[in-house]
């Protein structure tokens, strides 16, 4: 998605500020948000790609001003309301209740926004959540020269802007996995091979790169063309 959220190759944001001995959670509410998200993903209230796309649609100024778990909370809220699991009015009422009565234990919601009780789908244990069996041989082999597509999507994608239209070499085949660009938009899984592609960093960021740096990106087959 072309927005401020795709920061991997953007200049002007300053150095990455590293916090010494940073804790996993800075406050108790962050732990709660983390647990809620993993629980909702396990219950299949939404999938991982839908969650990521929910974060991507935050307003740029709010995104940049938010902390990591504030972004998680915004993404979760957006997707859950869009899917009708909860309404904005229900969230507002619950928030007001907690603000007015911090020690209160609210009763659980009896139903989703549709009026029907929310029932998580059955899960399949013992399987990789995103890997799928191969339906056809991979298009590319180790050592093949490729070029990434120069796409400008308005929807979710895992192909960063800085790597579009760039030449690389297939370094590894990971197997077949769910395609995020489809899975984020309820178009089904559309599984396809994923490759580790090696790029010369100079081809991505010019002569300012130090030494003989290289970057490896895991990319879906749809993103690649023969060079």
Helices and strands in order, then pairings?
Blueprint lengths: L27 H15 L5 H9 L3 H6 L2 H15 L5 H13 L30 E2 L12 E4 L18 E11 L2 H4 L8 E9 H5 L8 E7 L3 E3 L1
Antiparallel strand pairs: 1-3, 2-3, 2-6, 3-4, 4-5
Helix pairs in contact: 1-4, 2-4
Shape: globular
Radius of gyration: 21 Å
Mean pLDDT level:
88
- Classify the helix fraction into a percent range: 25-40%
Largest sheet: 6 strands, antiparallel
Which H/E pattern describes the elements?
HHHHHEEEHEHEE
How many distinct helices?
A: 7
As a percent range, the share of strand residues is 15-25%
Number of strands: 6
pLDDT below 50 for ≥5 consecutive residues: which ranges? 120-126
Walk me through the structure.
The protein is of the alpha+beta class and 227 residues long. Helices cover 30% and strands 16% of the residues. Strands 1, 2, 3, 4, 5 and 6 form a six-stranded antiparallel beta sheet that branches. Helix 1 (28-42) runs parallel beside helix 4 and helix 2 crosses helix 4 (68-82). The relative contact order is 0.14.
Short structural description:
This protein is α+β, with helices and mostly antiparallel strands and 227 residues long.
Which characteristics define this entry?
alpha+beta
């Amino acid at each position: 998605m072309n927005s401020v959220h795709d920061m991997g190759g953007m200049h002007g944001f300053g150095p990455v500020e590293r916090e010494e001995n940073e804790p996993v959670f800075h406050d108790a509410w962050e732990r709660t948000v983390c647990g809620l998200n993993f629980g909702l993903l396990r219950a299949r209230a939404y999938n991982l790609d839908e969650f990521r796309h929910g974060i991507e649609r935050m307003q740029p100024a709010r995104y940049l001003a938010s902390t990591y778990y504030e972004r998680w909370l915004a993404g979760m809220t957006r997707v859950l309301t869009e899917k009708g699991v909860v309404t904005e009015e229900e969230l507002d009422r619950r928030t007001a209740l907690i603000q007015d009565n911090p020690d209160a234990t609210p009763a659980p919601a009896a139903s989703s926004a549709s009026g029907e009780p929310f029932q998580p789908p059955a899960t399949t244990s013992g399987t990789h959540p995103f890997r799928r069996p191969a339906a056809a041989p991979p298009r590319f082999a180790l050592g093949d020269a490729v070029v990434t597509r120069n796409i400008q999507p308005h929807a979710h994608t895992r192909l960063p802007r800085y790597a579009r239209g760039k030449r690389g070499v297939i370094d590894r085949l990971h197997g077949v996995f769910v395609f995020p660009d489809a899975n984020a938009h309820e178009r089904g899984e559309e599984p396809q091979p994923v490759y580790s592609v090696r790029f010369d960093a100079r081809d991505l960021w010019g002569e300012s790169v130090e030494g003989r740096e290289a970057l490896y990106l895991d990319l879906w087959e749809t993103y690649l063309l023969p060079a």
